[in-house]
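Entry type: protein chain
Record version: 2
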Amino acid sequence: MITITMPALSPTMEEGKLAKWLVKEGDKIAAGDIIAEIETDKATMEYESIDDGIVGRLLVSEGQEAIKINAPIAVLLEEGEDRAALANFSSAAAVSAPAASAPAAMVAAKPMTAPASASAPQAAIPQQASVHGTKSGARIIASPLARRLAAQMGLDLSRIKGSGPHGRIIKSDLDGAQPLAVIAAAAAPVAAATAKPAASELALFAEGSFDLVPHTAMRKTIARRLSLSKSTIPHFYLTIDCELEALLEMREKLNARAPRDDGAYKLSVNDFIIRASALALKRVPQAHASWTDAGLLQHKYADIGVAVSIEGGLITPIIRHADVKGLAEISNAMRDLAERARARKLKPYEYEGGTFSISNLGMFGIREFSAVINPPHSMILAVGAGEQRPVVRNGALAIATQMSCTLSCDHRVVDGVLGAQFLNVFKGFIENPLTMLL
């Protein structure tokens, strides 16, 4: 028998919901068949089998929530086995059993390939396949996160022993190559402390004066990651004002010339900000890095994450290789990602990783704010509203449309001067938008 367990479909996932079974007991399935849909804290994912067999027993029902990672959810009967073999099956024994010779169904989403630029190696964009072969034909089982980190750091997964279920290589097996290994250990007390309100907290409010709303998986993840970010990353902040007249004029002209067919676009100020950030990262490469205990990860490609508000929280879809994309391509990609983010249809490679983040609250009239760094990034840009303000030019008072931008920096990676250099390059692109086209 092969025990199928709840997979870790993202590095932040601790539990999931079995949204829908796509098979029933007695069905014969083959490797590659989609057997279920699973809701994570970020999206709804398809769960793909990597083994042939017959569905012997479904251990959880559709709609069941809070299923812990690695908890058994189904059992496959292998060739030659019949349902009588299930008589002695124990879910508890399956959890503690040693790694089987053949892995159970592994990760998730139906494989999707993100487009890569001609200059970018394929490893730069993580794929969803979790099982790969070696030259000898043996299969290597690893989480998507472990594969991405191994590719970035030049590690040979065939030489790493996995400690996950069925010998799966997970992030902690990379010997601290990624700060998320430290994060996982530190997260446990945070989660425990927020599991339920203390009696002293409830005593502050009269009985019947409140409703206790359980935390969603997404809200738990946000609380854990950002609490960890503020407690482990030494933040400092730099603010700069950018004039927008030239950018707004250029945006109006480009939108007026947009084609009226399927290639149409409608540029937003945010599209220019994404492009300017990506180009500034390429111009100031020392700031384009992430901290790890093993050393700095010096990034080669500008993968820009943009915070998108969705029901119950937020998610940060990523514009891959934004430094080599034009404004129209960025605009259309961002619109598509935001729509699918709100529908919880993003695939992990579309929101995991990235090298830099942008959070824009200008549309809500927020003049200026400071954002919390999203690990493993070393910087995040908080963008305020564009508004008319009095300025002094050549000794005379004038009116200019300005936008305040605050850069949160990880002081382990980015010093004050380096952050200032980045902001000045960014300001140059925003105030002279034609230079983004060179």
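Comment: Residues 95-137, 176-194 have pLDDT under 50 and may be disordered.
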